[in-house]
Amino acid sequence: MYRSHTCGELNSSAIGNQITLSGWVQKIRNKGFMIWVDLRDRYGITQLIFDEERSSEELMQKAATLGREFVIQVKGEVIERESKNPNIPTGEIEVLVNELSILNTSLTPPFTIENKTDGGEDLRMKYRYLDIRRNPVKDKLVFRHKVGMQVRNYLSNEGFIEVETPYLIKSTPEGARDFVVPSRMNEGQFYALPQSPQTFKQLLMVGGMDKYFQIVKCFRDEDLRADRQPEFTQIDCEMAFVEQEDILSIFEGLTKHLLKEVNGVEVDKFPRMTYEDAMKKYGNDKPDIRFGMEFGELNEVTKHKDFKIFNEAELVVGIAVPGGASYSRKEIDKLVDWVKRPQVGALGMVYAKYNEDGSFKSSVDKFYDEEDLAQWAEKTNAKLGDLICVLSGDTNKVRAQLSTLRMEMAERLGLRKADDFAPLWVIDFPLLEWDEETERYHAMHHPFTSPKIEDIPLLESDPGKVRANAYDLVLNGNEIGGGSIRIHDKETQSKMFTHLGFTKEEAKEQFGFLMNAFEYGAPPHGGIAFGFDRLTAILGGQETIRDFIAFPKNNAGRDVMIDAPSKLDEEQLKELSLKLNIE
Amino acid sequence: MYRSHTCGELNSSAIGNQITLSGWVQKIRNKGFMIWVDLRDRYGITQLIFDEERSSEELMQKAATLGREFVIQVKGEVIERESKNPNIPTGEIEVLVNELSILNTSLTPPFTIENKTDGGEDLRMKYRYLDIRRNPVKDKLVFRHKVGMQVRNYLSNEGFIEVETPYLIKSTPEGARDFVVPSRMNEGQFYALPQSPQTFKQLLMVGGMDKYFQIVKCFRDEDLRADRQPEFTQIDCEMAFVEQEDILSIFEGLTKHLLKEVNGVEVDKFPRMTYEDAMKKYGNDKPDIRFGMEFGELNEVTKHKDFKIFNEAELVVGIAVPGGASYSRKEIDKLVDWVKRPQVGALGMVYAKYNEDGSFKSSVDKFYDEEDLAQWAEKTNAKLGDLICVLSGDTNKVRAQLSTLRMEMAERLGLRKADDFAPLWVIDFPLLEWDEETERYHAMHHPFTSPKIEDIPLLESDPGKVRANAYDLVLNGNEIGGGSIRIHDKETQSKMFTHLGFTKEEAKEQFGFLMNAFEYGAPPHGGIAFGFDRLTAILGGQETIRDFIAFPKNNAGRDVMIDAPSKLDEEQLKELSLKLNIE
Asked: EC annotation (chains A, B) (predicted)?
């Protein structure tokens, strides 16, 4: 071992001891007669001192050659520090060095290895191995490890077995695009990388594994949106002989366990909300309930006057922004512009100030009197001093727009507190969703999601109204998990395939082995999958996942550090029986 | 929940209780007036009873329709069993059923779901989800989970951080063949799946992560030998600021921890053996030291007579097979035939019986007298009653042949006991190995393995003699782990590349990003990787890995259950800018 201690553990109790440390040179202050070096490793920083009165000339000269990020080993005595630093655990001591070995030199790093770096995103990605030396990145990776360990401990204690499912599987054209892997030994054939182990976990249930989980990489060849990765990690879980309530209970337990062990936060029983209510109250199936601003539907109290825009709208709906009555005309105009940006897409915004003195002032005073506006206030739960913002139009669109406004205002008002955790189950998702493009229904989750028994008759008459035994776990406005109870009997399954527009042959072609497996005694089962990257980020108080991933890819799916993907040589292509098809 | 208890937990303390069970019908005995059903789930088997005196006629009729592997739920009373079965935990009780729901029917399974099944390997693989219901397979998967948890707990307690490294990386022509993944977004370019996270774990050390581990899938597109899988799992580990001794100590600790926690076995400090000694004493760099039969080199005591075969041989070497002196002439002839099979490849075998009365009888009595043979006995450590088997020829070949014979005899004599664990460190591996085909030296481990400092001068004069800071952990004759201290300075690294025949450009092309990283302060570091499939199998007392993998592939790299790999449709190929190149 190149050290007797780490750079994070020495304190005043070690004063007088001879110790050995190794690490990176974080900072050097050279006063000539004295040289201080901050030595850094994963565990912390310890101050080293070289002093011409107490150190040899040779040692002083050697210390003077050190540069940032040199790797060194020092031996020396722990002494009390003159000017103590109460902000770090080692701040009471320093090490008077009597031996210095330079284990490796370093070029000047392309950005500073500090908590706040001068390096831009691109540079940091290219030199990710240096970026990882910075506390904000390193700490997130350590945090991710802790979350993973706690997930495994909890589930293992609950009797779940982690089973590794294969990565080289079969491509199915359904769903998102697969990444594929040409097989050299099976000419002209391809494996696919799993988008999720969905089929395998269901097969494990058929196989009697009873409680399965896996923290596993999944792959989706999608055009990447911001903060999406082509490879991502899931906590994938499945249980047999369970109903929805059992799943909610176990995984509410898991989430509570994580919040307690990782964040030190105790949370009460998670509230539940139907998909329908979530859309109605928050315009969103993953509402952030850390704050209010619930939607107030205003159709009843707006359509009795001559305001044509509202009268023609399918939905008139508003929120009360706390303290917004004090906004200036200019501020409100900017807000109106903001909702009209194409990213939000509203055509305009009506507002009403509910002044501190109880009076109202609206942008539609021509049409609505104080009595009307008082009703708006009641519906939106506005308090004195609030600003009521009202959007109108097509129900789905206007809900999405108002949800975006709600989140923006919460952000601006500092209501989305990173250390405040508000989990929520959203339940009773629709089974099917209408796809405008293909003009048919798609499974909202996946084709094995079971409908609610009482809604099965609606499959014929009103498929869009059928609710599923499907649920999402939402944390602070982010979907962190989702799952369903699966169909385990052949009759319901084939009914579902019919409604999804699969012929018997297509269903057999795509899901044949699962359908076969279901012939041999499939138990009732259901499960859930958590997005591990996202979950970790949110528990870590962040909304972007990238720094919780050691080596992320950029938005073009490239790893700029290793420069992948890259070209293959002709020989490799030939072995794989492939030719490039580029015009 | 479909049950109040599992099928493995009810015993006499539950007698009189009303309970609910769910599971699969394992066995039915229908006497007409009484029907017994063995109900099975992951946790065990509970006997159900339907009795015409105590059950309704309707219930009797329903029970009579049950078939093997039907999924049922029963409610009933726990009662004392008349003929108790002491072999199972639930053997004292049975459940008098008063309610039966058939949750799912089952076709007759293609093989019996019993510990000893009538299903052949191919059928079992095709219906793997049924095979997993059998205890021997299910128990191995549960066992694997336990091993994995213990690995993670030990390493996490030792301060290791599990960091997920990417799966979509860059292809390098060096080493085994990569599986590649065409990138749709980067036309004509490919990712590769990792053969191991070697580069990334070294980058994590450069990044200051200090102690890294990961249980991770790796991929190698090799022509498959028996018991090899194209995807396999490693416990991959790396540490910074360490010397070889530190790695051996930590991972000896891990292995002891596993043996203790998983197998209940306490093992002393692991013996160590140099590669040279292992080859000399066992003809093998992964010797099984659970038994003796060490090699005795006989050159000195055989070359003084007129036996031309020995006189011309580079090496004459023997082992003493315990009790072998009693073998008949016919048995010995069969043994000679066995070593001459092409799989072993010996040209012949000389033997000498060391009879119980102290006399000798050899196949070369013409050349060697009792005094000579007594020397053979001394060199091979033969006891009264042993058979000395002697092979001769080219050193490397004859060692390999005698090693094969040694293992075979141990197997036949029952000396390879599954519950006996004999770990061994093999150290001081050669740095380089001569490749006949390309007529140059290859890195025996990989090009970043550090040579022993004292051997560096030999790099010029006698490269084959240079020893590396490389080590393997051997358990019961299987390599379960291997690793090395890495080169962390540029000078040694570029010297190595020269000796491996890489030009500067080639080294830069293939390892450029790692070489770059090393410019910015790489710490001394080293690591090890365990084959998780193999480790688990050996701890589980088996030598084949297949049943420790939930969904293994066959020797053609196919998953016969899901029928992968398979053809892609034209559209998919086109999106990937690929064409098949099949003549």
From this structure: 6.1.1.12
